[in-house]
């Protein structure tokens, strides 16, 4: 197993390089980069904007005619010297390949540079936003698995019963309603929208959090998390529930289960002693994608709706503002975490089913 782990760790290097390379060159040809956005702000705001950007308030810099094509959309009539200043500020004064290899070298050292617009290191920015996303993702993932796996097993054991039919109806409804829409419903009902005002609408803690006792801080923390976690769970548990049920149904029909029942094993012993290990392999296979989805894509709209300043909201704002250091730094970290989670899943396979052996794989 140690050789397999070593090979997988080595394989992560070209995988990371490939993902970063594809995204780097796609972003380079995408319109509306930071230089173009800065030019657009200057063109739209005139002398005031140039003054704020350190040009001394002179409107000449945006009104001078030039026959030189800068290659930036909307740059007609803008002083080439001003464009050069912008390129130097955002690191676009270097050739494309030089920027690319410089990015790879810096990222190998986990040096992601500084945000274009926040005047803070990307690493510090990610660490600042991470507690919010970890809180939301951790409790969502924990509740999803605590609900979905037992419910899926119960549905498989009582297949086609009234319990299975009614719970399937609830699962379908939960799957059909987007998480963000359910979040809005929770706000309308429980956060002062129309009916009750039982829960706060924004943030992870209250303004007086530091003055509370330890027990008060814990209660305040979960009080703020109640609605966003509930909305995230509703939008995430349906797929895992049906995956667990179908995996158990597939195993229950096999010969070894019939043999175990013929030997007099209890239903609980059959489900959890024989079927569980084999059925959970499919559930584990989808765990990395589920975790990444819950922590990232699943939390972005929830963070926006409940004013939670986490990684999802940061990623969205970075894409809109073309904050390339934050975009690529986040992509690098999330890709690395996803690859490591996949490796952990493979290791978990061998723990659940000792018959699986990765040592022979090349």
Automatic annotation (TrEMBL):
The organism's place on the tree of life at top rank: Bacteria
Matches recorded under PROSITE patterns: ABC_TM1
GO biological processes: microcin transport; transmembrane transport
Repeat recorded as keyword: no
Chain segments annotated as transmembrane: 9-27, 132-153, 165-191, 221-244, 279-306, 326-352
Keyword Transport: yes
SUPFAM superfamilies referenced in this protein's UniProt entry, alphabetically: MetI-like (SSF161098)
Subcellular location per the Swiss-Prot or TrEMBL entry: Cell inner membrane; Cell membrane
One GO CC term on file: plasma membrane
Domain ABC transmembrane type-1 residues, every copy: 130-345
Main location: membrane
Topology class, membrane: Multi-pass membrane protein
Keyword terms of this UniProt record: Cell inner membrane, Cell membrane, Membrane, Transmembrane, Transmembrane helix, Transport
Function per UniProt: Probably part of a binding-protein-dependent transport system. Probably responsible for the translocation of the substrate across the membrane.
Family listed: Belongs to the binding-protein-dependent transport system permease family.
Name this protein carries in UniProt: Inner membrane ABC transporter permease protein YejB
Organism: Motilimonas pumila
Gene: yejB
């Amino acid at each position: 197993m140690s050789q397999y782990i070593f090979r997988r760790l080595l394989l992560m290097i070209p995988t990371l390089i490939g993902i970063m390379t594809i995204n780097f060159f796609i972003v380079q040809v995408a319109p509306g980069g930071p230089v173009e956005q800065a030019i657009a702000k200057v063109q739209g705001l005139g002398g005031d904007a140039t003054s704020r950007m350190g040009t001394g308030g002179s409107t000449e810099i945006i009104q001078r005619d030039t026959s030189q094509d800068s290659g930036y959309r909307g740059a007609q009539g803008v002083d080439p010297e001003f464009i050069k200043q912008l390129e130097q500020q955002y690191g676009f004064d270097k050739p494309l390949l030089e920027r690319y290899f410089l990015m790879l070298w810096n990222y190998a050292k986990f040096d992601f540079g500084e945000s274009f617009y926040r005047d803070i290191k990307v690493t510090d920015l990610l660490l600042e936003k991470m507690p919010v996303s970890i809180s939301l993702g951790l409790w969502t993932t924990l509740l999803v698995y605590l609900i979905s796996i037992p419910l899926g097993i119960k549905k498989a054991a009582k297949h086609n019963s009234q319990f299975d039919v009614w719970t399937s109806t609830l699962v379908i409804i939960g799957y059909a309603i987007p998480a963000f829409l359910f979040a809005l419903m929770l706000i309308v009902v429980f956060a002062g929208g129309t009916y009750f005002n039982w829960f706060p609408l924004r943030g992870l803690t209250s303004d007086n959090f530091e003055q509370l006792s330890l027990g008060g801080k814990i209660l305040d923390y979960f009080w703020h998390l109640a609605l966003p976690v509930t909305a995230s769970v509703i939008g995430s548990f349906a797929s895992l529930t049906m995956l667990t049920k179908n995996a158990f149904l597939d195993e229950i029909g096999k010969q070894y289960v019939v043999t175990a029942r013929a030997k007099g094993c209890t239903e609980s012993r059959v489900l959890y002693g024989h079927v569980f290990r084999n059925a959970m392999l499919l559930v584990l296979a989808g765990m990395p994608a589920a975790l990444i989805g819950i922590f990232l894509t699943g939390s972005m709209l929830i963070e926006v709706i409940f004013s939670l300043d986490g990684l999802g909201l940061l990623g969205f704002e970075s894409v809109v503002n073309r904050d390339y250091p934050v975009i690529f730094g986040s992509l690098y970290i999330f890709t690395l975490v996803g690859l490591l989670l996949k490796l952990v899943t493979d290791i978990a396979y061998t723990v659940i089913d000792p018959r699986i052996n990765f040592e022979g794989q090349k």
